[in-house]
Amino acid sequence: MSNDLLAGVLQALSWWPLMAALSGLVMGVIVGAIPGLTASITVAILLPFTFFMEPTVGIGFLLGIYKGAVYGASIPAILLNTPGTPAAAATSLDGYAMTRKGQGRRALQISLFSCIVGDLLSTFVLIGVTAPLAAMALRFSAPEYAVLFLASLVLIATVSGKDLTKGVLSAGAGALVGCIGLDAMTSTQRFVFDVPQLLGGIPLVPLIIGMFALSEVLVQVARPPAISLSGEIKGTGPSITRKELAAQTPNLLRSTSIGTFIGALPGLGAEIACWVAYGIARQRSKTPEQFGNGSMEGIAAAESGANATVPATLIPMLVFGIPGDVVTAVLIGAFVAQGITPGPLLFTQHGAVIYALFTLLILTNIALFAVGIAAIRSFSLVIRVPNALLMSCIVVVSLAGAYSINSDPYDVVIMVLGGIAGALMRSVSIPIPPFIIAVLLAPQLELTLRQSLALSDGDLSIFFTRPISGVLILIFSAFFLYTAWKHWAASSRRSMARHT
Amino acid sequence: MTPVAKRAAIIAATALLCLPAISTSIAAEAYPDQPVRLVIPYPPGGALSITGAIITASAEPHLGQPMVSLIRAGGGGAVGATFVANSKPDGYTLLLGDPSINVIRPVLEKLPYNASDFVPIARITHSPFVFVANKDAPFSTASEMAAYAKANPGKLAYSSDNVNGWTYTAFELFKKAAGVTMRGVEFGGGGPAVTNVLGGNTMAYAGVPSVVKDHIASGGLKAICVSDKERYKPLPDVPTCAEGGVDVQWGAWIGVFGHKDIPADRLDKLKHAFAGLTKDEGFRTLMGRINADLAYMNASDFDASLQADAKSLR
């Protein structure tokens, strides 16, 4: 193994692989920052070009794009309330609030810092603990996933702002929207109404663009802010201090662990991890009321959680050849086309290439620091644009972004409808995050519930008799009971204070 | 310049700019004169999208124009198929299809397209299925698996993909041939299906060799049998299902289809191009790397086999 390790490191430290990884990183940041373009589309389109490159060059390039895109998406999320990809949706809640308060620079900086920390720690886990973690991931089947999805949904319903009822309403509507399409297990058509495009369901990316970006524009059109955005903010505010960065350490460690865990489970990715990390950070925070109003903790949690999934999704891919999400599925294709088959024989047959790629992962992480700062400098200029012009640009970018996904006008229609729906929801203070999360999670919860019952032949006790599932239920129940108790204790203290 | 002269100049310039548009429509007799789109009806990363990527990367010299993949995923392939069925029959939009989309589901389900909306151009790959079991499963051959299922009704759960999908149909044929009942859990695709059988959550699975080969070699999975007439050459120790006691012959293929109303001369050009493509060295190298089983079949043979498959399913 040490021969392979050395050979791999040396392979990575040569001109072409380094250049490929770096240019992939830069391209990824740009792609991620443009709403509608995601890492999956870019990687899928560029895949054929890698067939004729060296594996370290071609795959290093694709990995760079993957990493860059997850970070890049946070930039428009913070500056324009337009998540570049679904993984940055949680970041936009607090990021944009900070931008409006003139604190955009600090938001961008904490986002970059959290991204790098999350990614780096997760890469170390990937390198060090891959085999045992992958073996553990194999034990996770439908019942465990169902418990995780249910717990995430409950957790995120608490991210609904002040009114729990409205949060539940929003999540319920999202769950219904998520059901549209073909039922995964029986292929029955639901809510399709003979519209062929609806067979595939409502796509998440245009929906998010609409509900975050376009709805913001519509809301501002209906109720122009008292002070124009650019008039009030001279630039993006002060830089972050080292003390503020250090203060995020426990939060970062916790969120990174969450992101790594979620990433290592096949099928779960950054879009879910960002919300779970955010929700748990809110529960554990000393200043939960800040969340949604410009909390750095919130951004740190969401970004480190989301970025920690990137190296972690490579774990099941490399060890078992099992794709965790669309990007890893394309990456498997890239590997296979090079004659390298991810799976149980990978390390024994192609150890050097894998170690080369690990080295590139760490190096691109460090490079992200420089690339990120350059990106922050360039994109911050956006804030100086007069509000009316900025909003018009957002409309154009939203339309173009939605269309660019598949060259399909259907996505644009979804985006516009999402924008209108989002604006309406905001006008009656119904929160949007639970809606989005429910669209994502509710169908998966339903699917895994049914798969679990299929596994157990209709026996509900499977959730408790399977060891991992049972343990998860215990942990989550304890967590929720504790939170509920704290909440009840706080409110009864308040009412007692009122009476005395 | 005087205003009149300016206006005349603008009109003349605009007219000049329009000329290329006229000339291309006149030259449209030379097919193909723009890139040809190959619609991939599944999300990226699966066998079809990789095969599609290899086809499009190698197609230009044989077609005279570049070929580009267009991913239209959703509805288990229905969205992409419907897209091609509704497209203009000009030979610029092709479908990369498989048994699920082109044979099984149109027979068994009500879909927004019919199998007859397409005309086969070429079959590219064909692989038999390998039935596998978790390494600790209490059976190692086809007849043992059938016996276990009979002795323990309802206990044998296997990983399946989607209703009327590749794996689903393989097991339905097995169950019919052996006269047993087994429970399938639909995991949506090869990835989660393999994960579950590896982890011992389900006992069996049926997949194409490229997906299960490495796991058989490493001992993570036991090979039960191969659903073909003869043994699969890269896995010579695995008996055919008929040898194992349960006669199942079923394979997965990937093929190229066009709209049924494409003019005959364009169709011929496409058939010719794909025949050449499958002999192309670069193409064969890439396909070899992904362990695909190249099995070219020309359009008429392909058509005949499709009709036969459809009949047997009814």
Q: How would you describe this structure in keywords?
A:
heterodimer; A: 500 residues; mainly alpha; two-stranded antiparallel sheet; 75% helix; B: 314 residues; alpha/beta; D-Maltodextrin-Binding Protein, domain 2; 2 domains; six-stranded mixed beta sheet; three-stranded antiparallel beta sheet; 13 helices; 20% strand; elongated
Q: How are the secondary structure elements laid out?
A:
The complex is a heterodimer of chains A (500) and B (314).
Chain A: H1 2-12, H2 15-33, H3 39-50, H4 55-72, H5 74-80, H6 89-100, H7 104-139, H8 142-157, H9 164-178, E1 181-182, E2 189-190, H10 204-222, H11 229-232, H12 242-247, H13 249-264, H14 270-284, H15 296-320, H16 326-337, H17 346-380, H18 387-404, H19 409-427, H20 433-456, H21 462-465, H22 467-499
Antiparallel strand pairs in A: 1-2
Chain B: H1 3-26, E1 36-40, H2 47-58, H3 60-63, E2 67-71, H4 78-85, E3 93-97, H5 99-108, E4 118-128, E5 130-134, H6 142-151, E6 157-160, H7 166-178, E7 183-186, H8 190-198, E8 204-207, H9 209-218, E9 221-226, H10 241-244, E10 251-259, H11 264-277, H12 281-289, E11 294-298, H13 299-313
Parallel strand pairs in B: 1-2, 1-3, 6-7
Antiparallel strand pairs in B: 3-10, 4-10, 4-11, 5-8, 5-9
Helix pairs in contact in B: 2-12, 5-13
